[in-house]
Specification:
Elements lengths: L1 E5 L12 H14 L3 E4 L3 H7 L1 H17 L5 E4 L2 E3 L4 H7 L10 E5 L9 H10 L3 E5 L5 H5 L2 H8 L3 E5 H4 L5 H12 L5 E3 L15 H11 L1 H6 L3 H7 L27
Parallel strand pairs: 1-2, 2-3, 4-5, 5-6, 6-7, 7-8
């Protein structure tokens, strides 16, 4: 399996505190059957260190994991906070893509949908980048109306759901949202967004989430979300979403998930 969203570089952002903790994450992932990791530290910290500095830090992790015999391939990416300056930062080299590909992992605020989001995403596409929206199940706008993501997917925007959300470790609201997005082809990747080896909701666990997705969309399609789909990133091949519109399911309280009136 392949992880495309993980925080494994020690003493950076809110990832592992030290190299020992990073190695512990690697052991867990190896036990899951994960073979490839794309490291995606937050852009606020990684961008200040720079591409060369981040490559050096990842090499330290690679050496430590290799010393443990984990046999893991590590690649460099970054989790980018999407804003008006993202495109310029990518073009200038201040930020970078996933494993040197055309794919970029981007995130938005959870509590509000910024008015620049669609334009920023489409500007990335026009310049040749392929945006992947990180953990859309967390965004209140998507929870209220999953077709926010359908409209983006129709224009080729990809998305990654978090494994802990799919198995219910992040609460019922995120579980319902994640299930809906998976069932309707609105997410193409499952990744752990792992940060440590001590909290189940933040560990590099994929296997249970793939099983949960298989109940919704079948084993072959679920497995593709951690194998052939992320492999397309590494091979720099195009990946096209095949989304379905979500039919509204009104409750007494209104909204797709009965969350808001």
């Amino acid at each position: 399996m392949i992880e495309i969203h993980s925080h494994i570089i020690p003493a950076l952002d809110d990832g592992p505190a030290d190299m020992e903790a990073s190695v512990a994450m690697g052991r867990i992932a190896a036990g899951e059957g994960t073979k490839i990791f794309i490291s995606t530290s937050h852009s606020s910290e990684a961008g200040e260190i720079g591409l060369g500095g981040m490559q050096a830090r990842l090499e330290e992790v690679r050496a430590a994991w290799d010393a443990e015999g984990l046999g893991m391939r590590l690649e460099l990416g970054v989790e980018i906070w999407l804003d008006y300056e993202t495109l310029d930062a990518l073009k200038s080299g201040r930020l970078w893509t996933l494993a040197g590909s055309q794919y970029v992992l981007v995130e938005l605020p959870s509590s509000s949908w910024p008015n620049y989001a669609e334009r920023a995403l489409f500007d990335l596409q026009l310049t040749g980048y392929a945006p992947i929206l990180a953990h859309p199940e967390r965004y209140s706008a998507v929870q209220d109306d999953p077709n926010v993501l359908f409209q983006l997917a129709e224009r080729g925007i990809l998305a990654q759901v978090t494994s802990a959300a799919l198995v219910g470790d992040q609460g019922s609201t995120l579980k319902k949202a994640a299930d809906t997005l998976v069932r309707h082809g609105l997410v193409q990747f499952i990744s752990s967004d792992s940060h440590n080896a001590t909290s189940k909701r933040r560990m590099p666990l994929l296997r249970e989430a793939v099983a949960a997705a298989a109940l919704l969309i079948g084993e072959e399609t679920a497995l593709a979300m951690v194998t052939t789909n992320p492999a397309a990133i590494l091979a720099r091949q195009p990946l096209t979403p095949d989304p379905q519109r979500v039919e509204a399911r009104k409750s007494l309280f209104g909204g797709f998930f009965g969350k808001r009136g």
